[in-house]
Design goal:
InterPro entries: RNase_H-like, RNase_H-like_dom_plant, RNaseH-like_sf, RNaseH_domain, RNaseH_sf, RVT-Znf. The chain has 329 residues and is α/β, with parallel strands linked by helices. Helices cover 32% and strands 16% of the residues. It has helices at 2-7, 41-45, 48-51, 68-75, 101-108, 121-124, 129-139, 146-151, 170-176, 178-186, 260-277, 290-297, 307-317; strands spanning 8-11, 52-53, 56-57, 88-91, 219-227, 233-241, 247-257, 282-287, 322-327. The protein binds zinc ion.
């Protein structure tokens, strides 16, 4: 039972009657555990719906100065724009929000999902930000390869779609697949060294990822996000361009403390909102993270930590007369 309450979390609805301090509704658990000292009776009783306003959060409802780290956790907690009025309880350890024994077991064993993989060097490396972000995702095993998607419950089949010989793990997709090896060989790479730390960071990458024009009459939205590992602070940004590649609009957002998957979704939501406000009718959306594209297409994501932003994204997507969502490499 203790494990169950530890692993479940409330998804806040518009008419929430959860308590700000005592209900488990943020990614860090009940906020009461994060603050010290006594609370006044009124503060103790404060409900989320009193604290929630259209533009976000009414900080004046908190009768004391809230520590910045708590503010950042609250800020990054998604609240549905439209739909759901009621609070929903979700199992926060699985992507679909459904209870599963495996993640419960890990939780009971004190297994930390964010392993202590040392990957701060990535941010200091002299590389294009996009490549840093890719490496960071690799380091956290969160690239949308089959094995990873299966772990998140998105797919069941884990075999490599190219060779069909082995499970498509990250290493298989990047190094071990027989077809991938051929590519490396053609590029003149004889051995690939895999380690938590790079041996040397001497090569500068000069290759730019190509941006392709959308068809005539279409606009294109590109979004991406990043999370600073040491602090967990996440941000997202996006840019809208026309068929000539000319800048139309862009945005950036400091999300607060959240995971990379959520950060990508925040970016998508902001981007769709921007394009909708610009009255764009035909839109191509290009996303970095394949897992997000899969999640958008997977109707099973109904009741979990990301479903609120997913729902908003899906709703916003209906505002365009023509919409295409692509995964770009
Ligand atoms: Zn393969």
């Amino acid at each position: 039972m203790e494990t169950f309450s530890k692993g479940s979390r409330w998804m806040v609805g518009r008419e929430s009657n959860l308590k700000v301090w005592h209900s488990n509704w943020t990614s860090k658990g009940p906020l009461r555990n994060m603050i010290q000292g006594p609370l006044t009776w009124e503060a103790n009783q404060l409900e989320i719906r009193e604290f929630l306003v259209d533009t976000g959060w009414d900080w004046s409802k908190i009768p004391f100065e809230l520590p910045l780290d708590i503010k950042q956790v609250i800020q990054a907690t998604p609240i549905s724009l439209t739909g759901r009025g009621k609070d929903v309880l979700a199992w926060s350890e699985s992507p679909q929000g459904k209870f599963d024994l495996k993640s419960a077991y890990k939780l009971a064993e004190g297994f930390d999902a964010e392993s202590k993989f040392e990957s701060k060097w990535i941010w200091k490396a002299d590389m294009l930000p996009r490549i840093k972000y890719f490496l960071w995702q690799c380091a956290h095993n969160s690239i949308g390869v089959k094995a990873c998607l299966a772990r998140r419950g998105v797919v069941e089949e884990v075999n490599c779609p190219i060779c069909q010989e082995e499970a498509e793990t990250l290493l298989h997709a990047l190094r071990d697949c027989s077809r991938v090896r051929l590519v490396w060989r053609k590029l003149g790479v004889k051995r690939i060294h895999c380690a938590a730390f790079p041996r040397a960071l001497t090569h500068k990458s000069i290759q730019r990822i190509r941006w392709e024009r959308p068809l005539g009459g279409w606009k294109k939205l590109n979004t991406n996000s990043s999370v600073i590992e040491s602090s967990g602070m996440a941000g997202c940004r996006g840019v809208v361009r026309d068929e000539e590649g000319i800048w139309i609009a862009s945005f950036t957002r400091r999300i607060g403390v959240t995971a990379s998957f959520e950060a990508e979704l925040w970016g998508l939501k902001d981007g769709l909102m921007l394009c909708s406000n610009l009255n764009i009718s035909s839109l191509v959306v290009e996303l970095d993270a394949k897992a997000i594209v899969d999640a958008l297409l997977n109707a099973d994501y109904v009741n979990n930590a990301i479903s609120l932003i997913l729902d908003d994204c899906r709703l916003l997507m209906t505002r365009f007369s023509r919409l295409q969502v692509n995964h770009c490499y």
